[in-house]
Amino acid sequence: MLATAGKDKYIRLYDEQTKSLVLRMKENGELCGHSNRVFACKFDPMDNNRIASGGWDNTIQIYDIRRRGPIASIYGPHICGEAIDFKDDGFTLLAGSYRQDNVLELFDLRTMKKFRTIDWDGPKASEPLKSAEQEDDMEEDKKEENKENFMPTNEPAEKVDGYSRYSPAPFIYSALFNNKTNTIMAAGAGANQVRLFDYDTGAVLCVISDLPKAILCMTKANTSNDFAFGSVDSKVRIIGQRQLMDPLSQM
């Protein structure tokens, strides 16, 4: 079957042989589905009855075809492109968000909760999520440290939230797993970069940078480790991943 989604917030399923509409899904009981346009819709390769979708309403909706509608909703990711993917373990979902922080998140579909954030610059990716109490303690410590180190100045700030014009935020349009190499691939606007991350450690394996325009979509080959991405400059670039697996290699 073929699944589509878009501006009207519905998920449609078509029979690929007859080209006919089989099912249309949006709400299901108390679950109202999407409230804004949908930019990503994907089948779970380990469960043909499960579909995930995401869009501008900051939710990921999980559908079961047998239930003819959504069965769960995850709040948080702001999806603006093909930035949802399933890992081959049967329960891990990747979401890439068009924003500055927490752009790559991993969710456990058994609990429908986030269990890990992949840091765009790599080092913090392997750290587990901290508890609310730990986060509050860290925030208080940070405030006290800022008070002690505060120095009045008239100079304009060069960075906001860790990003600047020299180090732009990622703003993810596309994110996916490459299960053959156990990596995560992500790309977008802002930085106009493609980055490959090691799934286990979160380390940055490769940065393809200095691209003239934003990257809108990516895909991986079925029979090799190669991948391709398309950008606003009307070009599709094909990359041999076997040439890019040295840590922090850069093109």
If you had to describe this structure to a student in words, what would you say it looks like?
The chain is mainly beta. The chain has one helix at 132-149; strands spanning 2-5, 11-15, 20-25, 38-44, 47-55, 59-64, 69-75, 84-86, 92-96, 104-108, 113-118, 172-178, 183-188, 194-198, 204-208, 215-220, 227-231, 236-239, 249-250. A five-stranded mixed sheet has the order 12-13-14-15-19, with no helix packed on it. Strands 4-5-6-7 form a four-stranded antiparallel sheet, with no helix packed on it. Strand 4 (38-44) and strand 5 form a beta hairpin. The two termini are 38 Å apart.
Please give the number of β-strands.
19
What general outline do the C-alpha atoms trace?
globular
Instruction: Describe the oligomeric state of these chains in a short phrase.
Output: single chain
Gap from first CA to last CA: 38 Å
- Helix/sheet category: mainly beta
- The string of secondary-structure elements, in order, is EEEEEEEEEEEHEEEEEEEE
Q: What are the segments in which pLDDT stays under 50 over at least 5 consecutive residues?
A: 147-160, 246-251
Rg: 20 Å
Physical arrangement of strands within the biggest beta sheet = 12-13-14-15-19
The averaged pLDDT comes out at 84
Q: What does the largest sheet look like?
A: 5 strands, mixed
- DSSP helix fraction: under 10%
